Amino acid sequence: MRKMVFVTGNKGKFNEARSIFEAKDIELIQDTGGYPELQEDELEPIASFGAKWAAEKLKIPVMVDDSGLFINALNGFPGPYSAFVENKIGNKKVLRLMEDEDDRTAVFKSVIGYCEPAKEAIVFTGMVEGLISLEEKGTGGFGYDPIFEYNGRTFAEIGDDEKNKLSHRRRALDKFFEWLSK
Ligand SMILES: O=c1nc[nH]c2c1ncn2[C@H]1C[C@H](O)[C@@H](COP(=O)(O)OP(=O)(O)OP(=O)(O)O)O1
Ligand SMILES: [Mg+2]
Fold first, then answer.
1. Would you say the CB of residue 141 lies under 6 angstroms from ligand 1?
2. Largest CA distance in the chain
3. Do the interacting molecules here have an ipTM over 0.90?
4. Structurally, what CATH architecture does the domain formed by 2-180 represent?
5. Å from CA of 66 to ligand 2 middle
6. Is 10 annotated as a binding residue?
7. Nearest partner of 144 among 70, 43, 38, judged by Cα
8. Which one of the ligands is nearest to 7 CA?
9. In this predicted model, what pLDDT tens digit does every residue of 94-143 receive, in sequence order?
């Protein structure tokens, strides 16, 4: 069985990616060592720099995932600040910010960065459009899943298997698998 090292401290991301890789017969190994996260408006340079940095440090091919929730009524907030905002204020306060907003549309984005030592990093972007719910719903998933609605149910309600068929992460990983198989 082939292997891939995923540098992330986020257990929810890792568990999701692991089951997506399992279906491709690739064993996913978590490295929690981290990497410096650039301050950028876009996720692509953050993932690209992180993958390059980790590949040179560990001296093995690695992947990273920089992701986030972009809420249209909030000008794309929290976007690249998603992890900071999740830890600092949480879903309830994000819903408070959205209290008077009619436009509930939002985009979940995942950028997978892959790099082999002494090579350039390559990135694959996946997106899914949905709505910010009026209240938290569901017990599955992680992070913003309880407030991100897709076809009437939140990502925390639809369950891991359903989420893994259509999520931003799945869409980015499908592009990665296509590239790997070339
Ligand atoms: O499918 C998802 N369902 C719910 N929430 C999600 C999802 N995907 C990303 N998110 C949230 C988690 C974190 O608050 C932020 C990403 O921040 P991001 O820096 O990429 O991840 P992180 O700091 O948690 O882990 P790490 O950098 O070690 O991979 O967006
Ligand atoms: Mg992070």
1. yes
2. 51
3. yes
4. Alpha-Beta Complex (3.90)
5. 7
6. yes
7. 70
8. 1
9. 999 999 999 999 999 999 999 999 999 999 999 999 999 999 999 999 99
